Amino acid sequence: xxxxxxxxxxxxxxxxxxxxxxxxxxxxxxxxxxxxxxxxxxxxxxxxxxxxxxxxxxxxxxxxxxxxxxxxxxxxxxxxxxxxxxxxxxxxxxxxxxxxxxxxxx
Amino acid sequence: xxxxxxxxxxxxxxxxxxxxxxxxxxxxxxxxxxxxxxxxxxxxxxxxxxxxxxxxxxxxxxxxxxxxxxxxxxxxxxxxxxxxxxxxxxxxxxxxxxxxxxxxxxxxxxxxxxxxxxxxxxxxxxxxxxxxxxxxxxxxxxxxxxxxxxxxxxxxxxxxxxxxxxxxxxxxxxxxxxxxxxxxxxxxxxxxxxxxxxxxxxxxxxxxx
Lengths: 106, 209
What we know:
- Chain A is built from two helices and no strands.
- Chain A is mainly alpha-helical.
- Chain A has one domain (3-105).
- The longest helix of chain A is centred in the middle third of the chain and has 89 residues, at 3-91.
- The N and C termini of chain A lie far apart (144 Å).
- Chain B is α+β, with helices and mostly antiparallel strands.
- Chain B has a domain at 104-207: ATP synthase, E subunit, C-terminal (hypothetical protein PF0899 fold, 2-Layer Sandwich), CATH 3.30.2320.30.
- Helices cover 72% and strands 12% of the residues of chain B.
- In chain B, helix 1 (3-103) packs across helix 6 (196-207) and helix 2 (108-122) crosses helix 4 (143-154).
């Protein structure tokens, strides 16, 4: 064989090895990805559900806080109304007693 | 090595490296796509569960709102009603106290006589007897005048007898037909009890106007 052809054959052989190594590495990458995909699947599932749980818990917490705030407002209004009733009852006490006595005695 | 040969060698190696890089790049893309696809599948699967979770949570949230609101409204209404009830009861207590005081005053006899006459009229006159409490039994009531008043109002000749019985009441009288089957209870306690609902309404109307 001519030295030039021999050199080319050797280099082509080397090139073939480079491509073969790349193929092996590529298969390895794909195999790892397949293996990884199961874990990714599980992890993504877990994360998505966990995220939904967090959102639900936050929503419930916020709702509870808002409802308690609203409840406080309603009770404050009721307390104010109660004080007004107390004041009116005090102011009209004698008149109410007279009305009732009149009703009973007449 | 001759320059021309070196060029060829370099070219062969460069092509091989480029091919190798392309192969690796495609493998990486495939790997990435596989992972992405799995993630998407997982997201879709988990989303069903997540949506169910959120739906449950939304129901829970509605229940929390309704429960807290209903309980607060109930408590608030109770506070207001309780305050009104207490105020009305205070008036009723005062009314009872005033009636007790009336019994010991000089204005009482005409009131008692009126109660007796009213009861006699309701019973339609005739032979009647009236029952009083221990205290009132000693009062100077004019049975004949009472009977006359009833006779005038009913047109039925009325005779009145004071019973030897005693009624357990703070004031007022029980009037009954002779024989005791039909009676009109005009004691303070009975009158208050009979008109309790009406009194509560009138008191409330006056108190909270």
